[in-house]
Amino acid sequence: MRLIGLTGGIGMGKSTTAALFRRAHLPVFDADRVVRHVQAKGGAAVPLIAAAFPGTVHDGRIDRARLRAAVLGKPAALARLEAIIHPLVRAAERRFIARAQRHGAPAVILDIPLLFETGGYRRLDTVIVVSAPAAVQRARVRARRQMTDAEITAIIARQMPDAAKRRRADLVVRTGLSRHHAWRQVRRFILRTLR
Q: Global pTM?
């Protein structure tokens, strides 16, 4: 079974591309979804975050704005948060891969935003980077999230530059044109690689 990484910066169209792989009946592991799950009320990360970042958890729920303020632009604090979250995500990923293997999937798509930044690309057979022009990226983030331009800039700055990701990719899916154009790229990859 092939392990295929799917990554790209915030607002690049990674979720849409992941949906295209699901449409092709390939199992997709969504690392962001796991993060939301472990950070939800009752999630495994909540008590650990409460202890590491006092004032960021109220009534068993993480105050995302306060947590973001506690870590953005603070490398040591961010490393502390990642040391809580990353092992939980990796454990969920291992369970996902084992299930897909038992069901005979030819490949799994591991949708991981910080794939290069965390070194996760080393365990994969193929890496796909989703990319869009910077203006499209910022417009998408503004349209979907309640973030200031400064917050968007801080998140983008924390991620590996798009050009560097594209250079390291086995395939670049460009999402700045249309969903149909992205689907053609995904379909061509599947036919060439997995069929």
A: 0.86
